[in-house]
Structure formats: C-alpha cells, structure tokens
C-alpha cells in the first residue's frame, strides 16, 4: 500500500491530506514539500474523473500559483540567491511510496532535483561560517 | 490535458442557469486501487471553507459537487450540468 489510505483518512481531500506535506526521500531525508498537484483530464472522455499524475515541488512551484507578478518576484529572489534557472520539479505519482503525516518517495534527493535552494544557501552562506 | 490543483481551487462554480454556487475549496478524491487517485468531486462554498480551516465539529455539511456534474471548465468558472437547488451537502 503506497497511496493515501482511505482507511486512515476516510474521504481523501487533496488539499487537506496532500498539499503542503513534507516530502521524504527513500533515505528519510527531507526534500521539500508538496506545493501543487498535476491532474490529468482525459480529452477523449471529459466525464472521466481526473487522475492525479504528479506532485509539484521545488523553486517557483508555489509562486506559479500567484500569477505573473508573483512568479517574476520569486524568480528575482531566487536569482539574487544565486539560482540561475529556478524551476519546479514534477515527481510522478508512481514514485510516491506512502502518504501519512509526510509523503514518502521512492527517490533519492539527487533524483528529486529539488535541492537547488538548500544547496545554494549552504554553499553561499553556511560554507563561509567558521567551523562549517 | 493537464491541470494543477491550484488552477481548480478558488474557481467560481456556477450552475446550469449561471447562478453562483460558490468557490472551490478543495478536491475530493478516492483511490480505486493502491496506485491510482482520482478526483471524484469538489468541495464548494463558505461552509466548506469554514470546515477546511478547522471547524469539523460543527457539522456544517458543505456543498459537495460530484465530478460527473461538471459540464465545463473555463479560465474563470466551473459550470455544472445541474441546478443549484439539486446539489447535495456532504
């Protein structure tokens, strides 16, 4: 069983039970949080319920929901931090191992490609601290 | 076609006569098997919002719109094929 358990939650409400939850990689290391969800609507059959196909995380994932101004502002902040090409990452739902209080992935942090912010902050700020 | 959660949440819902029902507060889903999650409905309106921010114990019975009742999605609205008075409360 990997998915959101109806036995655990009763009715699954995506915003309540998935969005904003922390992501853990296969080594139980934090690798971001769920900022958005990608839903697939069937063009051939519009009445078919949309299927959850991916989680969205990483730089600009949430900012994209704030419109052009929000996106531009966030992009500028990321560039000031030294991230040249900030972009959100889509994690396929098939790589989700389990959802409980956190979302556990069947991926390593490197495969997630979501460490741009933490790596940059580590390299540009913490690496220069004495004893770091 | 792909849509994101945040592209749906917050949209206005109108019934088949263009009467407002409310805004989408959350998406209801079910997992028919261990590998798939499908959106089966929308939680709509102020009662859903109050419940969403933590007043579950009040039994507010928010409006629940089944996905089968969705006729059309455009950039601003979600149009239903039913009338507002026929919607059930969850």
Write the layout of secondary structure elements.
The complex is a heterodimer of chains A (132) and B (90).
Chain A: H1 6-9, E1 12-13, H2 14-17, E2 22-24, E3 30-33, E4 36-40, E5 51-57, H3 67-81, E6 89-92, E7 96-99, E8 103-105, H4 109-112, H5 116-124
Parallel strand pairs in A: 2-8
Antiparallel strand pairs in A: 2-3, 4-5, 5-6, 7-8
Chain B: E1 2-4, H1 5-8, E2 12-14, E3 20-30, E4 38-44, H2 46-52, E5 63-66, E6 70-73, E7 77-80, E8 88-89
Describe what this molecule looks like in 3D.
- Chain B: Pfam families: PRC.
- Chain B: This is PRC-barrel domain-containing protein.
- Chain B: It comes from Planosporangium thailandense.
- Chain B: Residues 4-80 form the PRC-barrel domain.
- The complex is a heterodimer of chains A (132) and B (90).
- Chain A has helices at residues 6-9, 14-17, 67-81, 109-112, 116-124, and strands spanning 12-13, 22-24, 30-33, 36-40, 51-57, 89-92, 96-99, 103-105.
- Chain A is α+β, with helices and mostly antiparallel strands and 132 residues long.
- Chain A has a single domain (13-41, 49-128), classed as PRC-barrel domain (SH3 type barrels, Roll), CATH 2.30.30.240.
- A four-stranded mixed beta sheet of chain A has the order 3-2-8-7, with no helix packed on it. A three-stranded antiparallel beta sheet of chain A has the order 4-5-6, with no helix packed on it.
- In chain A, a hairpin with a 5-residue loop joins strand 2 (22-24) and strand 3 (30-33).
- Chain B has 90 residues and is mainly β.
- Chain B has a domain at 1-36.
- In chain B, a hairpin with a 7-residue loop joins strand 3 (20-30) and strand 4 (38-44).
- Chain B is globular.
- The termini of chain B are far apart.
- The chains are: A alpha+beta (132), B mainly beta (90).
- Chains A and B meet through strand 1, helix 2, strand 4 and strand 5 of A and strand 1, helix 1, strand 3 and strand 4 of B.
- Strand 4 (36-40) of chain A pairs antiparallel with strand 1 of chain B, so a sheet runs across the interface.
